[in-house]
Design goal:
By secondary structure, the protein is mainly alpha-helical. It is built from 7 helices and no strands. It is globular, with a radius of gyration of 23 Å.
Length: 196
């Protein structure tokens, strides 16, 4: 009886090992396959989104050199961790998240304040410069998270779903944050309480 139980457990263990080896072999083949074709795919994705990613980095850091450094560092991080990208169709969202984290790391190191006047060129396409400047100053009055939500939604045309993925929150939470940001911005514009 003991031998039968041991044989059964040994058989189950052997099956487990076979399945385990198949899973790892498949995973290794997938990763290896991804790594061999990824140079071209990754490059094409970077070329497609590079301007948008740069604008986002510039929006957060307000300095051309820092934005370029952040983008370069983010691209290196993304390429070395490309295996973590679960679905290629989410590259833009995934890359945006990496870039935002890199920018915030740089900001934490520098402890600089936001200066909306330094990135006028990256903000919107309003033809009325007065409206544009007033809007920029109003956005500056928002806290950093609300600024990012407004920027991603209105200036980078991210969907609420994409914003939720970038911020790692539910779609409902992203909608609520966007709504709250809009209300705060509307109140700031209404009150005219913008700092000089």
């Amino acid at each position: 009886l003991v031998l039968l139980i041991l044989k059964k457990e040994l058989r189950q263990y052997c099956i487990f090992l076979v399945v385990y080896n198949i899973v790892w072999a498949t995973l290794f083949a997938t990763i290896t396959g991804i790594m061999t074709i990824d140079k071209r795919w990754f490059t094409s994705q970077v070329h497609e989104y590079q301007d948008e990613l740069y604008r986002l980095a510039y929006h957060i850091l307000h300095n051309r050199e820092n934005a370029e450094d952040a983008l370069q560092e983010s691209l290196l991080r993304a390429y070395s961790n490309l295996w973590q990208l679960k679905q290629p169709k989410y590259f833009k969202t995934w890359m945006t998240k990496i870039l935002m984290n890199t920018c915030f790391d740089i900001k934490r190191k520098q402890k600089t304040d936001l200066n909306i006047d330094d990135y006028k060129e990256s903000i919107g396409k309003s033809e009325d410069m007065t409206t544009k400047v007033v809007m920029e100053k109003a956005i500056k009055e928002l806290d950093e998270m609300n600024q990012q939500i407004i920027f991603l939604f209105y200036y980078e045309n991210y969907s609420v779903k994409e914003i939720s993925e970038v911020l790692n929150v539910s779609v409902m939470n992203a909608k609520q944050r966007l709504s709250r940001s809009r209300k705060m911005l509307k109140q700031i514009l209404k009150d005219g309480t913008m700092g000089a």
